[in-house]
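USER: My hope is that you can spare some time for a protein that puzzles me. I am handing you a single protein, as its sequence and its fold in token form. Walk me, if you will, through where the backbone shape changes along the chain. The protein I mean follows directly.
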Amino acid sequence: MLDLTSDVADLCAALVDIRSESGTEKVLADGIERALSALPHLTVTRDGDAVVARTDLGRERRVVIAGHIDTVPIVDNVPSHVDGDRLYGCGTSDMKAGVAVQLKLAALVAEPVHDVTYVFYDNEEVDAERNGLLRLSRDHPRWLAGDFAILMEPTDGVIEGGCQGTMRVEVVAKGERAHSARSWMGVNAIHGAGRILDVLRAYTPREPEVEGLRFHEGLNAVFIEGGVAGNVIPDECVVRVNYRFAPDLSVAGAEAHLREVFDGFEVRLADAAAPARPGLDHPAAAAFVDAVGEGRARAKLGWTDVSRFSELGVPAVNYGPGDPTLAHTRDEYAEIPRIREAEERMVAWLTGAR
């Protein structure tokens, strides 16, 4: 049984000790549902292993505070343990420290200044189609409705606005097959792929400013594939390229840009996820930045589920006590003072003390 009256660091440790690798979140979801259902000021609903709890006080605004409860596979880093000010264990940073803060807010703040929807969802660390927040957005979009959303992703205690989009394309170099003993009778596609790599080496990533935040794009080869047999000149070589693009571009705009960059080559779109604009000019978001971030925010340079809220028309930011550089590592940990600081700041914000 999760004890929501315990210290937030102890609660985080309890969450870590309940294994919840992607696809195996049921036990943890059951525990979260039981703990929240015991709070009379919350209405609790569930879809699969996603649990949603909400206040209904008739406030002028509603905020959504969301976090995923799954982790990457465990590598001898459960159960948790404490060393000094560090709590070690799988998922401490990404993102059970943030989930612990969510649960403490749900328990401590019975009459928040905004109505609150707390979302605890499954399968974030795996392919997008299994993502619990995506499932909720499709099947229960009203559960995610709000004026502003906070995703408790690890940000090292700094508010990060929006997120970049991500796109993967296959850039194809064409050739003509021939026997390698008579190579001059063919055209080697692998050799031709060198021109694709030349384009990538010469490319200067954009660093646009979007709504006051500086984003830094990236365009990189992540895989190369070609070859037929040891005695055949290959007629095709594919360079897989990942483009991380700022939120001043749409998915269509990003694709058009890549087709221009790789003009003269066949470009096949493999997959893409839309970015999210920061939206920090929204009154609720601006108030959150002032109260919790002390007026400071930076751009999110990766892709996160704030994109899903953006698609629903809800401005969203990333804010969590974990350190993103420690996510998914064997020695993952969260700083206990940072977890307590996040709880303190968000309680003050929700109660109007800040």
